[in-house]
Amino acid sequence: MLTKLSQPVATYFDTANHPDKVAFVSNFSDHAVLVDDGREYKGIAEIQEWSNVNVFAAQLKYEITKVVQNIERSDETIVTAKVDGNFDKTGLPDPLMFEHHFTVEKGEIVRLTIRFLV
């Protein structure tokens, strides 16, 4: 059984799977940091640009497979998800799995680190 997701984390996946660009970025704090593929995106404008290219243009679809609440950091939730979409999958594993490390404070995502699982 999956651990229940906090509202901002659930909305992140819902608004990616059922594209809603405005609601997607509204989950992030104004000073949020997103780390993907070793690159940092800081603030709403950069996160919005990242999501337009890497989530919405690629038409990503997430299937959550595991949710873990970090026992050492109660504000961190780790979500493992199978990812599919409209992008070149040549040389990528099937299924394509990513870990999403969310830090949520005061009902907003303040940090998200996305890690490719090999």
Secondary structure elements and their pairing?
Blueprint (H helix, E strand, L loop, with lengths): L6 H11 L3 H6 L1 E9 L2 E4 H14 L4 E9 L6 E9 L11 E10 L2 E10 L1
Parallel strand pairs: 1-6
Antiparallel strand pairs: 1-2, 3-4, 4-5, 5-6
Description:
This protein is α+β, with helices and mostly antiparallel strands and 118 residues long. The protein has one domain (7-117): Nuclear Transport Factor 2, Chain: A. It is built from 3 helices and 6 strands; from the N terminus they run ααββαββββ. It has helices at residues 7-17, 21-26, 43-56, and strands at residues 28-36, 39-42, 61-69, 76-84, 96-105, 108-117. It has a 6-stranded mixed β-sheet. The two termini are 24 Å apart. The mean pLDDT is 94.
What is this structure, in a nutshell?
By secondary structure, the protein is of the alpha+beta class. The chain has helices at 7-17, 21-26, 43-56, and strands at residues 28-36, 39-42, 61-69, 76-84, 96-105, 108-117. The protein has a single domain (7-117), classed as Nuclear Transport Factor 2, Chain: A (Roll), CATH 3.10.450.
